[in-house]
Amino acid sequence: MKKGAVANIQYKSTKKILTSQDIKEADRFHNDLGNEIQEIEKKLLAENLLSPKARKYEMLRAWHLIGTRINKFLGDNKVSPEEEKDFWDHLYGRFSVINKSVPTSKISNTRNDFRIASLLAHHSIAKLEKIGLWALWREILTYKAFKDERVLNWVLKKLEQSPPKTRNEGRPFLKAVSGRLKKIDTTVLSDKELVKKLDEVKR
């Protein structure tokens, strides 16, 4: 991808050449995102979900708030599918009171904390807290097999019936489900066929 630069800021784009209008729009997006990040941090501090030294007191609620605000921002500021990966990576290092520095190595989209927070925000905080803490949810939402909403809902229902106390306690079950569906395209399965395979997983 080509890069365009203005005011010491470099923008990545799928376009070969950035026009002056493209750069102007990128400047607006960059500034609006910076303002939104500041507002998110103010909200986190005001609700005592984060301390000034970047210690999250209630991590699940903090990340749920972050995800909710980011989702709203993306609803008002469209990001193309081609540029989405860059957007999530770009959030690292931009929050001054969130201890999330730029990773030293590339991370996949499924393990990007801000992307996970975005998915987290699709669930109510009451449901999230009933199932487990941020560490467990972070584990749940990284599995490729759970992208099928039917699989995710089945897993969450099982966890809700008997919530694990820790991420390590819940991990064997999550791995078992993922392993059972390995190399299976669940989208071609009917609900009945999928549930039959899932019910073979013992917890």
Low-confidence stretches: 1-8
- Rg, Cα atoms, Å: 19 Å
- Record the strand order, biggest sheet: 1-2
Shape: globular
Q: Would you write up a description of this structure?
A:
The protein is mainly alpha-helical. The chain folds into two domains: 1-122, no CATH class; 131-203. The chain has helices at 20-46, 59-76, 84-90, 113-120, 125-131, 134-140, 149-161, 167-180, 191-198, and strands at 2-6, 9-13. It has a two-stranded antiparallel ribbon with strand order 1-2. A hairpin with a 2-residue loop joins strand 1 (2-6) and strand 2. The longest helix is centred in the first third of the chain and has 27 residues, at 20-46. The radius of gyration is 19 Å and the shape is globular. The model is unreliable at 1-8 (pLDDT under 50).
Write the layout of secondary structure elements.
Elements: E1 2-6, E2 9-13, H1 20-46, H2 59-76, H3 84-90, H4 113-120, H5 125-131, H6 134-140, H7 149-161, H8 167-180, H9 191-198
Antiparallel strand pairs: 1-2
Helix pairs in contact: 1-2, 2-4, 6-8
Overview features:
203 residues; mainly alpha; 9 helices; 2 strands; 54% helix; 5% strand
Compact description:
A hairpin with a 2-residue loop joins strand 1 and strand 2 (9-13). 19% of the residues are buried.
